[in-house]
Each structure stands twice: as structure tokens, then as C-alpha cells.
Design goal:
2 helices
């Protein structure tokens, strides 16, 4: 009996998984920074150290970032659900 090794069609996987997870972690960190900056700007305005314009601007930036993150998470969940519902 002769046994031949199985040769894969695709090249070996690179470190792409770690790059993707690092990018996801970076995106979450950026969202946290935006929310923290908005809270800090609001606190500065409340204590008389900042302007209302700065507080509103930072809150709007944080709200947009949160909306984008929420929309992205919903799209990913929808895509995963579609894959899981496929009949094999």
C-alpha cells in the first residue's frame, strides 16, 4: 500500500487572524476614547472650564461613532445569521 501526502490547494494561512483581531480591538478602543472625550467635554462645560460648543461637538462625534459601530455590529450579526440559515 502506498500513501501519498495530501497537498492543499491554497497557500498556508498567514497571520491575518491576529491582524483582524488587532484592528477590531483598535476600533473598540477608538470608540471608547470618543465616548470618554465627550464625557470630559461635558464635564468641563459643567464646571465652567469648557464651552458649550466643544461639549456639543464632542457628543455629536461620539454619537456618530456609536451609530456606526452599532450598524456594523447589526450587519455582521445579520450576515452570520444568513450563513447559519443556509441549507447544506
Amino acid at each position: 500500500m502506498t500513501v501519498e501526502p495530501i497537498v492543499p490547494d491554497a497557500p498556508p494561512a498567514t497571520g491575518r487572524e491576529t491582524e483582524d483581531s488587532a484592528a477590531f480591538a483598535h476600533a473598540l478602543d477608538a470608540l471608547g476614547v470618543a465616548l470618554t472625550g465627550a464625557s470630559r467635554a461635558e464635564d468641563d462645560f459643567a464646571y465652567g472650564r469648557g464651552t458649550l460648543q466643544a461639549a456639543i461637538y464632542e457628543r455629536a462625534r461620539a454619537d456618530v461613532a456609536l451609530a456606526v459601530a452599532t450598524s456594523t455590529a447589526q450587519r455582521i450579526a445579520q450576515a452570520v445569521q444568513s450563513v447559519l440559515n443556509m441549507q447544506v
